[in-house]
């Protein structure tokens, strides 16, 4: 408390100083931009350049007798070689200085000093402003010059005495520049100051420790945290505290406090354990109970994270097992289908083999009877040839010497 | 402080002091890069009756030697006006805004607004410029650098 106020004052003093030392850009007449001047009364529109809308600077007249600032018309002609007002073609040769009357009128317009924002209150006719800044303006930074000093100083602060000379502070014996002495006094630790409570003088450096023990300084009762509203000077506080009921009860309050904090800690531990054991059941409870917002929320976050992870894994597992079942079903179906087909084919093959076997029997029988029926071999040969042909085509079955029609139909059956 | 900023400061303070002509209002001039103005067209022109249009002015460092970039923008209840010299992306084909042809440093925000206002007021055609769709689709240039042909003295 006690140290912050002077510190802020010192900062503001430094910033003031720094702004006053940044001014030297402006003062040199070559840097003075007449376009930035502020006019005391709003200038007549007829005296303003139609391009920059400021009073003419170095007015120039075109052949078509329009007037502009010399810089403005030069810029405009770079872009288009016509008069900006009536668009008549003009070149640099078509330009001449405006009548002296106009130049005089704009030069007599009264302007504020360019250092007005630093504090100069002078107003001068525009044509004199450069001279004012160069010669007389007190707010221009100039060389100190006293005893060959090269430092800069505001003109109205120059004197016989150099302000950059180091002087000793009479209170703290520190060396400071003459011009900084006033700022130094604001913060000098050696200067004594009155204690606002007991009105005795203390050095600024000792004051802080004094306030800690000043018998007149008002302090709150030591039990103010437990609700005692009393604020008294320090010397009377001992008497108050001997009778204050809050002070008497302080040990009890303290014990309760420590017990409560222990219980809160225990409660937090238990809740954490409960959360881990029954995450779903305790969720709403921990949400509604806002007694300890810090601990449980962190824990909850982690638990929720784990739980959600688990949930994810569970759904993944479900999905995987589902697709497994589907895959199995598909395979089984495929297998059954294939099996059926093979079985059918096997049946067909078996019938075909049976047919061939029957035919074989029949042929063997025929051969056995051959010597007794000499005409038969001719016919048998023919039938045999036909049958062999048919068998070669598709493994046809046939029952002895039956018709071709029948064999044909059987051939179709086999294909099924 | 640049030339453009000083000039725009003067224009702005004049607008605040003297106001703008009827039907023109300043919407936003927080900086000296971009201003927004609303314009309305008075009279019995049915094309624009009761409507407001928003103009966006973008000033370069060379203003007023070079013209500002002036386009219509859309916004809340603000459409691009139908006009044979205004593209549907807001670009205005007006000789006054061309650096090489119609612009003069004597012009200012107010005079540009008045010109556009009268350009709308005198229009009777409810149409977009020829080749509008193609132009809007392929144009990436800033309006200042498009070489328009200013051939229509009627509007």
From TrEMBL, chain A:
Bias (Basic and acidic residues) ranges: 404-416
Region annotation (Disordered) ranges: 1-32, 394-416
Residue ranges occupied by any RING-type domain in the UniProt entry: 49-87
Biased amino acid composition, Low complexity: 1-25, 394-403
Keyword field: Metal-binding, Zinc, Zinc-finger
Zinc finger extent (TRAF-type): 111-153, 184-228
Cell inner membrane found in the keyword field: no
Residues annotated as domain TRAF-type: 111-153, 184-228
Protein name per Swiss-Prot or TrEMBL: RING-type domain-containing protein
InterPro entries recorded: Znf_C3HC4_RING-type, Znf_RING, Znf_RING/FYVE/PHD, Znf_RING_CS, Znf_TRAF
GO terms assigned for molecular function: zinc ion binding
Keyword Plastid: no
From TrEMBL, chain B:
Domain of life of the native organism: Eukaryota
Keyword Cell membrane applies: no
CDD domains from the UniProt entry: UBCc_UBE2W (cd23808)
InterPro entries: Ub_conjugating_enzyme, UBC, UBQ-conjugating_enzyme/RWD
Pfam families (UniProt xref): UQ_con (PF00179)
Keywords attached to this entry: Ubl conjugation pathway
Residue span(s) of domain UBC core: 3-155
The keyword Nucleotide-binding appears for this protein: no
Name of this protein: UBC-like protein
Organism of provenance: Ascobolus immersus RN42
């Amino acid at each position: 408390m006690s140290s912050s106020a002077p510190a802020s004052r010192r900062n503001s003093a430094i910033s003031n100083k720094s702004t006053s030392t940044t001014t030297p850009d402006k003062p040199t007449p070559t840097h003075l931009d007449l376009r930035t001047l502020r006019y005391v009364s709003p200038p007549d529109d007829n005296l303003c350049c139609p391009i920059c809308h400021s009073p003419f600077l170095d007015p120039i007249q075109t052949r078509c007798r329009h007037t502009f600032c010399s810089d403005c018309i030069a810029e405009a002609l770079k872009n288009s070689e016509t008069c900006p007002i009536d668009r008549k073609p003009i070149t640099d040769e078509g330009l001449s200085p405006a009548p002296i009357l106009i130049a005089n009128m704009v030069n007599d317009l009264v302007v504020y000093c360019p250092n007005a924002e630093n504090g100069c209150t002078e107003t001068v006719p525009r044509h004199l402003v450069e001279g004012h800044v160069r010669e007389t303006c007190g707010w221009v930074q100039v060389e100190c010059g006293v005893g060959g000093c090269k430092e800069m100083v505001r003109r109205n602060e120059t004197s016989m005495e150099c302000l950059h000379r180091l002087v000793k502070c009479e209170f703290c014996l520190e060396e400071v520049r003459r011009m900084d002495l006033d700022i130094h006094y604001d913060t000098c630790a050696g200067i004594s100051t009155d204690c606002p409570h007991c009105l005795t003088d203390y050095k600024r450096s000792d004051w802080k420790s004094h306030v800690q023990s000043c018998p007149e300084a008002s302090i709150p009762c030591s039990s103010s945290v437990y609700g005692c509203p009393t604020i008294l000077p320090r010397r009377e506080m001992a008497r108050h505290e001997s009778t204050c009921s809050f002070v008497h009860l302080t040990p009890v309050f303290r014990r309760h406090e420590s017990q409560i904090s222990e219980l809160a800690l225990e409660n937090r531990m238990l809740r954490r354990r409960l959360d881990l054991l029954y995450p779903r059941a305790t969720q709403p409870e921990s949400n509604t109970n806002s007694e300890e917002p810090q601990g449980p929320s962190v824990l909850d976050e982690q638990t929720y994270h784990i739980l959600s992870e688990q949930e994810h894994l569970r759904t993944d597992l479900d999905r995987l097992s589902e697709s497994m079942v589907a895959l199995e079903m598909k395979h089984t179906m495929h297998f059954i289908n294939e099996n059926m087909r093979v079985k059918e084919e096997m049946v067909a093959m078996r019938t075909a083999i049976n047919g061939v076997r029957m035919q074989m029997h029949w042929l063997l029988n025929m051969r056995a009877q051959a010597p007794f029926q000499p005409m038969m071999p001719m016919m048998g040969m023919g039938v045999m040839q036909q049958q062999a042909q048919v068998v070669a085509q598709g493994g046809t079955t046939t029952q002895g010497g039956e018709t071709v029609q029948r064999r044909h139909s059987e051939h179709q059956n086999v294909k099924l | 402080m640049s030339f453009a900023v000083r000039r725009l400061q003067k224009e702005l303070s004049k607008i605040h002091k003297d106001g703008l002509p009827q039907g023109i209002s300043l919407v936003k001039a927080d900086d000296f890069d971009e201003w927004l103005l609303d314009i309305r067209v008075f009279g019995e022109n049915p094309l624009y009756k009761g409507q407001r249009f928003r103009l966006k002015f973008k000033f370069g460092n060379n203003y007023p030697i070079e013209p500002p970039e002036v386009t219509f923008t859309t916004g809340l209840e603000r459409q691009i006006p139908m006009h044979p010299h205004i593209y549907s992306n807001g670009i205005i084909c007006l000789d006054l805004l061309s650096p090489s042809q119609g612009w003069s440093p004597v012009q200012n925000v107010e005079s540009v607004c008045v010109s556009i206002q009268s350009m709308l007021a005198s229009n009777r055609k409810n149409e977009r410029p020829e080749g509008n769709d193609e132009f809007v689709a392929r144009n990436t240039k800033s309006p200042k650098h498009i070489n328009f042909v200013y051939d229509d003295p009627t509007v």
